[in-house]
Design goal:
Structural class of chain B: alpha/beta
Oligomer: heterodimer
Number of helices of chain B: 11
Shape of chain A: globular
Radius of gyration of chain A: 26 Å
CATH superfamily of one domain in chain B: von Willebrand factor, type A domain
Largest sheet of chain B: 6 strands, mixed
Order of helices and strands of chain B: EHHEEHEHHEEHEEHHEHEHEH
Strand order of the largest sheet of chain A: 6-7-8-9
Shape of chain B: flat
Chain lengths: 505, 425
């Protein structure tokens, strides 16, 4: 068991330069150490790449294969310029939620960095991907790579057939709605590139077989009746997955365009859990690289020099700047996540009276079990609501600011004191709540029987408006996909129509 | 647990995976930039967009719009690092939209997309001058100073060993061998056939012997055909071809008399700079001659031209005469493309204006591809100067002469754009 008297083990070779043999050796030791703590992971695949390839990987949001689109080029150039000017270092690692779990090591890194990345990505993130309920439920690690290959090929074929411009238009429009292409309650069908292709060709075959020009001449039955009866609202329930609705019901899209909408939707779905678990995921990985390497140091496998270099990097990663310091960019998910994971371990190992009061069920428990449970069953929002302790609120000196439009000033709402703990914790958890941070826009009506227009509803949350120029722009994109008039109604808290914007095709 | 990890070296796979994406982005970015430059140039286009009804197509720029919350409404934000705040404290709302606890608000509702992207000078100029064209663009080529360029010119039989073309050599070797050995082979065939016949119907031993000797002799001759001969050698041939260089000279004429203050000079300098940039895109080589004048003219270097104060009266004619002299002496019309730009506040005394205009019309304009006169008056409502009035008589007769008034810096580009607008024929 970890934490027992250190056993002296063979010291690993040191030195700044890495070799493949060395990485192999370190990986084996890290693996053994991870096994001591019972980390359950997908098999690992480690790839060594150059910094330019790292920039490439960055650009495609960490995916090893992506369909071509200019926005990825924009991302690349942005990163490259920041990197060249020294304004931004490269992330040390990129890890892909796939089975086997692929982690990239950058060739410029020292051996210490490679070991850190292996511990962080190949054991930290990897076990999170395998264990966390969101990832288990919403992404198919086994199929993602195949699907991406399929998507890339499909998009490129479309470019050849219909022109780069036409494909780009559709992709632009889909990207504008990417955040609204996620199923949150329905479990998506597992991805399989082969099935996907089979499904597609089947569909094409079916259309071919069924094609009969005579159908065109048959008078449509029943259409005249609809107008008289009660007008049925379609869809019956509001649909929050806008891209899904477009894919299924858009009156104008060609089959290949529908397929592209579907691809963007699937990719968006794949990233959905990552956005919800940023703090936990990074916190978990950081906690484990810290714990694993320290454990190896305790066993005598690592030298002091290695540890000093490691701690310096680690400290940089988990720095949290205060709100009034230069370079403050909000709460650092690494810092918060790492601190919370450590804090949970502390609550288990050395609980104070306060901890016993706040966390009676875990204080003094087995920290490995408690952490494992937390990793598996929470997302950022619930994780913070459940586990953020008063001690951490004090350590971070968290405070909340109320910004209400009726007042001409900002007001300090609560701080790290007895009265404030619960409120600070609740508000911080809210900060990671997707429902609050993203405007609630849903499809409410499709006027199938009249002008085929689409009506969306924006439920105004606490009077917060949309960024007007962008909303107008997105609406244009939506109109392009829909092909007919699209109307976005803003509904206030009392359910009354506040205002609307419209875009005619 | 056993076995080593799957470790792959991807470094040789090559980067540039996103090269296509980058190119596409740059193309898109340029489109946007061109629009921006166009708007800057021609203010009417902006007002046209405003008044010309709504455009319902998504704009093809580099923005990536989404639905997101803007400033306003009610919300609470959480920040770390509290030192002095207690609940109920009030803070002034930071100016400029986004609220936040004193610091920047990056956690939520990111700011605008402040994306800066550098263009190379060439790329920038291409966009900057995209819809401009030099009038009378004829490239006079210069005979004397020529650049030479090596071009391939077939194959020759003599040359240095480094230029030896092995395929060509082997080709001619093969041809020669086939040609030389064909008759011998025919003889050999005949002799072999005769020998076989002699052996088949028993002939005299001497006869067979003779035939055998003949075959042997022919075979020896066949072997003597050399595999490679001096004749076969072929060398790649390269020759120098003179490359004509299109050259232009640009005369900058400026009045530096006391009435031309720094502001006016600055405006003039900007015009000259634009013209220089524009010319250097069209010609491989552009020389500049700076001529400044008060009551007499002199040729100076750039620094003196723009910065050295000098005061005195104004005789425009002196500058024109000097320019004509320099041009006749150093830049013959047949070999140089001659451009000139004159900047002045238009103050000319007595008969100077009239004489200058006449001199310009008779001597200078016929030699020039283009002559631009930029007047920098004291203010927008200044009356027309005497020089302007006189020069104005020339515009009708000379299509390669243009004149404009520029008062402020930001008028420079529009005026420039107007002068060199592409003819829409």
């Amino acid at each position: 068991m970890a934490g027992t008297v250190p056993v002296r083990e063979k010291r690993l070779p040191q030195g700044p330069d890495w070799t493949f043999e060395l990485i192999d050796e370190y990986e084996l030791e890290i693996r053994k150490t991870a096994a001591e703590f019972g980390l359950d992971t997908y098999p690992n695949q480690i790839e060594v790449i150059t910094s330019e390839q790292m920039l490439d990987a960055y650009a495609s949001v960490g995916l090893p294969i992506g369909y071509p689109h200019w926005s990825f080029g924009k991302e690349f150039i942005r990163n490259e310029q920041a990197y060249r000017k020294g304004a931004q270092g490269l992330a040390y690692e990129i890890v892909i939620n796939s089975n086997p779990c692929i982690a990239y090591l950058m060739e410029e890194n020292s051996m210490m960095m490679q070991a850190l990345v292996v511990a962080h990505a190949s054991y930290g993130h990897n076990s999170f991907f395998k264990g966390n309920y969101l990832f288990r439920q919403w992404t198919a690690a086994d199929a993602i790579l195949d699907y991406l290959v399929f998507a890339r090929r499909y998009v490129m074929e479309c470019e050849e057939r219909y022109g780069i411009g036409a494909v780009e238009e559709i992709l632009d429009s889909c990207h504008a709605l990417m955040n609204y292409g996620v199923d949150r309650y329905r479990r998506p069908q597992p991805l399989s590139a082969r099935e996907e292709e089979a499904r597609m060709s089947e569909r094409n075959d079916y259309i071919q077989r069924q094609f009969n020009d005579l159908w065109r001449t048959v008078p449509a039955a029943g259409t005249s009746k609809v107008g008289h009866g009660k007008r049925s609202v379609f869809p019956a329930e509001p649909e929050e997955n806008i891209l899904y609705f477009i894919e299924k019901h858009s009156p104008r899209l060609a089959p290949w365009q529908r397929e592209i909408v579907r691809i963007v939707r699937k990719v968006s779905q794949y990233f959905y859990p990552q956005g919800l678990t940023k703090v936990m995921n990074e916190g978990w990985a950081t906690f484990w690289h810290y714990t694993l390497l320290n454990r190896m140091y305790d066993k005598g496998q690592l030298e002091d020099g290695f540890m000093i270099e490691f701690l310096q990097v680690h400290t940089n990663v988990v720095t949290q700047r205060g709100f009034d310091e230069r370079g403050y960019g909000g709460i650092n998910p690494y810092a918060l996540g790492f601190a919370m994971m450590r804090d949970i371990r502390r609550i288990c190992e050395a609980p104070t009276d306060e901890d016993r009061l706040w966390f009676p069920d875990i204080a003094g428990g087995d920290w490995l079990k408690v952490l494992d449970f937390a990793m598996r069953n929470f997302k950022d929002e619930s994780f913070i609501a459940q586990y953020l302790s008063p001690k951490l609120i004090r350590d971070f000196r968290l405070f909340t600011v109320a910004d209400h439009e009726s007042k001409s000033y900002l007001e300090i709402d609560s701080i790290h004191n007895e009265e404030g703990y619960r409120r600070v914790r609740r508000l911080l958890a809210q900060h990671y709540n997707r429902d609050v941070s993203m405007p609630d826009v849903q499809v409410v009506r499709y006027e199938r029987d009249t002008d085929r227009s689409l009506v969306l509803r924006h439920l105004i949350h606490r009077n917060r408006p949309l960024v007007s120029t962008e909303a107008t722009e997105v609406l244009k994109h939506l109109t392009r996909l829909w092909g007919f008039t699209v109307r976005l109604e803003a509904i206030d808290a009392d359910g009354r129509l506040d205002h609307y914007r419209e875009c005619t095709a | 647990m056993a076995g080593s990890v799957h470790l792959i070296d991807r470094r040789l796979n090559g980067g540039n995976k996103s090269a296509t994406n980058r190119q596409r982005f740059i193309r898109r970015y340029k489109e946007q930039l061109k629009r921006a430059v166009g708007d800057m140039v021609d203010k009417r286009s902006i007002t046209d967009i405003d008044s010309g009804g709504e455009v319902n197509l998504p704009s093809r720029d580099i923005s990536e719009p989404t639905f997101r919350h803007g400033p306003g409404g009610n919300r609470e934000t959480v920040h770390p690092g509290n030192r002095e705040f207690s609940p109920g404290d009030t803070i002034q709302r930071p100016r400029g939209g986004e609220g936040g606890g004193g610091g920047s608000e990056a956690g939520e509702g990111e700011g605008t997309d402040s994306f800066v992207f550098t263009l190379s000078r060439e790329e920038f100029l291409d966009i900057f001058f995209d819809d401009l064209e030099l009038p009378n663009l004829v490239r006079n080529y210069l005979g004397a100073v020529q650049q030479k360029k090596m071009v391939r010119a077939g194959y020759v039989v003599e040359g240095s060993p480094t230029n030896l073309s092995v395929p060509r050599t082997m080709k001619s070797s093969l041809g020669r061998r086939v040609a030389l050995s064909a008759p011998i082979r025919r003889e050999l065939e005949a002799a072999t056939a005769a020998l076989a016949q002699a052996r088949a119907q028993p002939a005299e031993a001497a006869e067979i012997e003779r035939l055998e000797a003949q075959v042997a002799e022919i075979e020896a001759r066949l072997k003597r055909v050399p595999f490679l001969d001096d004749l076969d050698l072929r060398y790649r041939h390269r020759v120098f071809v003179p490359q004509p260089v299109a050259r232009a000279v640009m005369f900058c004429l400026m009045d530096v008399s006391a009435s031309m203050d720094e502001r006016k000079k600055d405006v003039a300098k900007r015009f000259f700079t634009l013209l220089y940039l524009f010319l250097s895109r069209k010609y491989e080589k552009v020389e500049i001659v700076f001529v400044r004048h008060t009551d007499n003219a002199e040729e100076v270097d750039e620094n003196t031209f723009f910065h050295d104060p000098k005061s005195g009266g104004t005789v425009v004619l002196s500058a024109l005469e000097l320019m004509h002299e320099i041009q006749a002496e150093r830049f013959p019309v047949g070999q140089w493309n001659i451009y000139a730009a004159q900047a002045s506040d238009g103050d000319a005394f007595g008969s100077d204006a009239g004489k200058s205009a006449r001199f310009l019309g008779e001597k200078i304009i016929p030699a020039c591809r283009y002559f631009a006169y930029v007047e920098v008056p004291d203010g927008q409502d200044a009356r027309q100067s005497s020089l302007w009035v006189e020069y104005d008589t020339l515009t009708a007769a000379a299509p390669n002469f243009a004149m404009r008034r520029v008062c402020e810096r930001d008028e420079i580009y529009p005026v420039f754009h107007e002068l060199f607008k592409k003819e829409t024929a």
